[in-house]
Amino acid sequence: MERPRLLYVASSFPYGQNDTFFGPEVRELVRQGVDVLAVPVRPRGELTTPDAESLTRRKPLVDGEIARAAAAELLRSPAAVLAAFLLLFRSPAPKVLLRNLVAFPKALWLARLARTWRADHIHAHWAGPPSTVALLASRLSGVPWSFTAHLADIEARNLLHEKCASAVFVRFIARAMEDLMRRCAPGADESGWVVLRLGIELPEPRVGAAPSNNPPVVLFAARFDPEKRHATLLEAVASLVGEGERLELWLAGSGRLRPAAERQARELGLEGNVRFLGYVRNAEILEWLAAGRIDAVALPSDWEGVPVSLIEALAHGVPAVASDVGGVGELLGDGCGLLVPAGDPVALAGGIRRLLSSDRLRDDIVRAGRARVEQEFAVEPVVERLRELLGFRER
Description:
Strand order of the largest sheet: 2-1-3-4-5-6
Radius of gyration: 22 Å
């Protein structure tokens, strides 16, 4: 039987640092019999998911081929292209409109690709420009489409009503993101909304006791941006060290606020307790988790969806403490981790202390967290459900 064909549109996957968590889903789609062609709207950065490169059509926002395809689409159906172009002007903010206009030629190229490649469906990650490109390509090609909405992309309010009305389904990674969509796009068509987690590849269950390093290692893997609250975590660690606790904090990530965080660590006297590791590939972090090099994961952010870094920690038997924001409680609630108020270094320090000092608590959290990941985040059943939503039943 002929394999179904899926155009998989993202921001930069499989390049750069932002879309790396789509890798397991793409691999599992292929394993379950789907031909996937990944299309990054604005590919940038180095290749970060190497096994997806052979499945990818890497093109910049505009080049000669895209310009020719756009012109061909305009000649083929000028009225439809004009209507698609005018749709962009429903964007509520100049910045959003500009991003959509810049991506318009690529949308025309994608429409042509959808027809020539004989795609059965177009699925986009992010409710911003990638789903705008998919929406327009679907309108012009007649190929059905859908999208996954995450977090900040919803808050950008990029043609959300139009997208919800025309997509076959709208996928959210957390119930909190559904609620966010209702706030950002009141009155939007909810008939196709569904909550379906991001799947991860489950490692074998940990055998024996949870990691116990000397000193214990707490990991925070995130870019250095204001909403990630590195400063709150550094304050919490400083209070623990000041009370005689022995621990190391590993900060994996890059970003514009790293110099400020390094300065804060020096001012707090944490030079011997904090390691700034720069950007670390996800595969290496998974190796650390599997090898027992990490005792706990912390996430002090102001706002999150359901962070893959926490899902992967729980899958590897590493307990986590995090701010109770966004969809984090849907992962760590019910004893699957520790939740603390955002922006509260005292509460965060208390959570870290509890994780590192109580073997029984750690064991309870490890068991509950692993069970939740198996039930909701294992990539095989997630992709089985995604395939059903796409209309790709067994052929």
